[in-house]
Specification:
2 copies of one chain form a homodimer. The first copy, chain A, is elongated and about 70 Å long. Chain A starts with a strand and ends with a helix. In chain A, about 45% of the residues lie in helices and about 15% in strands. Chain A has an 8-stranded mixed sheet with strand order 3-2-1-4-5-6-7-8, with helices on one face. Chain A has 2 domains: about 150 residues, NAD(P)-binding Rossmann-like Domain (Rossmann fold); about 90 residues, N-(1-d-carboxylethyl)-l-norvaline Dehydrogenase, domain 2 (Orthogonal Bundle). In chain A, strand 2, helix 2 and strand 3 form a beta-alpha-beta unit. By secondary structure, chain A is an alpha/beta fold. Chain A contains 9 helices and 8 strands. The interface between A and B is large, with 88 and 88 residues.
């Protein structure tokens, strides 16, 4: 397919690379950030623009991959009648696109994407469309880059899924951050924890996390917990979270 | 080396398999749990006993891999003069072994180990010894099963490391558990989050978690946060943790 990408951030960059690798043509990148756009355009051997009126009108699909708070700005005065237009935002309703075209939808990648990625990870795609044409084109595009993980999901399911994604990615990453900070202050090497971190994530392929719960909290091992809280006395932020999550583990049935 | 394994739980089972795979001989398993011990003895083509006085006195190393609260019981009346004896417990001082032998130490695997594991993960080993003989034997044993990740660490460092391990494994796993529960109640498929969970863990090989932090909290995206808290109104346990960790992310400098 011929694709115009609107945006030049992490999601635009990684999805664009996946599209190229799948044999699609990226005919243009539009972004307010002219230098980021021209860098991606160079990488993909295509053209870029930062003028909305110069957006190419002959593509099959237009993918709007910009920050939530920039979407309104992009949509203002944008008219692409007859074209399929989708945004990539978890928390934005698909209807915001109805002033642009009758064939609109969502193309939400449930993954943490960063421009710097060398190896592109699996990216489950949750798509939605206003009509059969939008659904068909977006599903086809999704299957071309994510063979096994393509799910049709409406606004409601997508927004709910985003909450879970925040928990298992953003909140989990914050625990990693606090542990790294603790290790640095205590003269320990955080990198030595990586095999444990990876195993804790990977075993979920085989085991429910509920069944895999181990450690002093679930064992009600008060002696170890008190020893740990004593060791955390100079780390009040982490100590506070350690207490709350320990209590929550013990309350879980 | 000739090894006697004391204990028949997760750590005993996985370390024993690693020792066998590295070409060591497991000459005996001692455990109060006779059926678990005889199962492992069958797997490893060796003998088992649940009588302490029948513990083989001719091995090179004795590894005590039992729950923290069972160690005292195992040590009572145990005498293995001239032998190297180590326990695998993060939070137990090595000196508890000094009544057993003069060559004692610790052999702590920094990993979440489960008997059911088919593929044995990387297991960094933190060892400590009371003298050169204990250190040399335990270091050699560690290198034979964990080529690159062997670290000498005293009681103090090991106990501190255990705190970090609890944070990145037990506390993180609890977030997975709450997310799984939320997904089930909301009719979502938790398995669809696995690529995101794995990427969040794996990217730590290249990136500090602090630099990788994304999401509504760090963006101070109050609109999305409020939307999420509203969606969590029937999940008070997760909502409480979502709020606390969101505040903690926003306080992190």
């Amino acid at each position: 397919m011929d694709i115009v990408i609107i945006g030049s951030g992490n999601v635009a960059a990684v999805l664009g690379r996946k599209f190229k690798a799948a044999g699609h043509q990226i005919v243009q990148i539009y972004s307010r950030n002219a230098s980021a756009a021209s860098e991606l355009a160079y990488e993909w051997d295509t053209e870029s623009t930062n003028y909305k009126i110069l957006i190419n009108k002959n593509a099959d699909v237009y993918l709007i991959a910009v920050n939530d708070d920039a979407i309104d700005d992009v949509l203002n005065e944008l008219k692409l009648p007859g074209k399929v237009v989708a945004h990539t935002a978890a928390s934005v309703l698909k209807e915001v696109l109805k002033t642009v075209t009758e064939h609109y939808g969502v193309f939400y990648p449930l993954q943490s994407l960063r421009k710097e990625m060398v190896n592109l990870p699996d990216v489950p795609i949750f798509f939605d469309g206003s009509d059969e044409k939008a659904k068909h084109i977006l599903a086809t595009l999704a299957h071309s880059i994510s063979a096994e993980k393509v799910v049709e999901a409406g606004d409601d399911a997508r927004v709910k899924l985003h909450v879970a994604a925040v928990v298992v990615s953003n909140l989990v990453n914050h625990l990693y951050t606090l542990a790294e900070d603790y290790c640095r202050k205590e003269g320990l090497d955080f990198k030595q924890l990586l095999p444990l971190i990876e195993e804790t994530a990977f075993r979920l392929r085989e085991t429910s996390p509920k069944l895999a719960q181990t450690g002093p909290a679930v064992r009600h091992d008060a002696e170890t917990i008190h020893k740990h809280l004593d060791l955390l006395k100079n780390h009040p932020q982490l100590k506070n979270i350690y207490v709350l999550l320990t209590e929550s583990i013990q309350q879980t049935k």
